[in-house]
């Protein structure tokens, strides 16, 4: 199928509305637009540079946790959830009661991603994995009664308050199983020649158009991008997330998806997607460089602590993974007494690496702000 000749699907009359039925995507794709070739080269190069850092950075998993936390916070923000990255890393006790529902949604996102990435070590990317990921995402939050872990059995819509004034109505629920089966085959079809970045660009469009779940489609659709890249070996670790790019270009993102559905303009969507990969991968590479510089500076600093230096270095490793901690967290992770944990915290405060952020006299929390700041710019 040539992009320039693409017909996206048809509108089908249902009872009192028309739903959009997209064409299957499991086919070979070609294009004439030279801009796609240039962007594909740029995105592939940037992704390779980002992946190189995940292969050479010592203890890289310490820092991947922060990438996942940032993605969870930003992807959920697109859906209207307001939880900052530092809040996402706190325990529930530090979250105001009125914000705990939002906080739980972000925590679910983090767990869903971690479980899905772990599953990819032994299982291929599949609809089964997406349904399991969706089940975790929806547990105990808004949408928990909307068929968590199952494809929808009712009609949903995007925008508006009902089917009558919806901005877009995805395919009828009876079409979902076949369309999702076709999409899964597309991920693994080795008989067709389609670059992986183009394949996942088309896959993300198709997933969001099918909207296979009653709720949570945006978040699962964005998780799908990272899961695909990891499953295909383009990323050794889950370090690329496009939610930040989509959130900063939200109107363009939605417009590009709708342009495919309404006008068949797949070229524009693929160019937008590849630009997002190139920009986000370059930004991720720069973040890794800044993390390494900060790490070098921090570890040189704690060497001045004499006999406390070894434990202070362990504390730094904890802070890379969990940059908001309590004294109890430190005591448990480092296997030290409570007084020792307070002493380590005090010395790290004196060095300027952590700062108390609650203002409490008891049950205080401390943040590694210089590190956190690298992920919020």
Q: Percent helix among the residues?
A: 55-70%
CATH class of the largest domain: Mainly Alpha
Number of helices: 15
Q: Give the percentage of residues in beta strands.
A: under 5%
Our measurement of the CA-to-CA distance between the termini, rounded to an integer number of angstroms, reads 40 Å
Describe what this molecule looks like in 3D.
The structure is a single chain. This protein has helices at residues 34-56, 61-78, 85-88, 100-119, 127-138, 176-188, 196-210, 217-231, 243-248, 250-263, 266-302, 309-321, 327-334, 338-351, 369-372; strands spanning 9-13, 18-22, 324-325, 355-356, 366-367. It is mostly helical and 377 residues long. The chain has 2 domains: 3-287, Fic-like fold (Orthogonal Bundle), CATH 1.10.3290; 293-375, Arc Repressor Mutant, subunit A, CATH 1.10.10.10. A 3-stranded antiparallel β-sheet has the order 3-5-4. The longest helix is centred in the last third of the chain and has 37 residues, at 266-302. The radius of gyration is 23 Å and the shape is globular. The protein starts with 8 loop residues before the first strand and ends in a 5-residue tail after the last helix.
How would you briefly describe this protein structure?
This protein is mostly helical and 377 residues long. The protein has helices at 34-56, 61-78, 85-88, 100-119, 127-138, 176-188, 196-210, 217-231, 243-248, 250-263, 266-302, 309-321, 327-334, 338-351, 369-372; strands at residues 9-13, 18-22, 324-325, 355-356, 366-367.
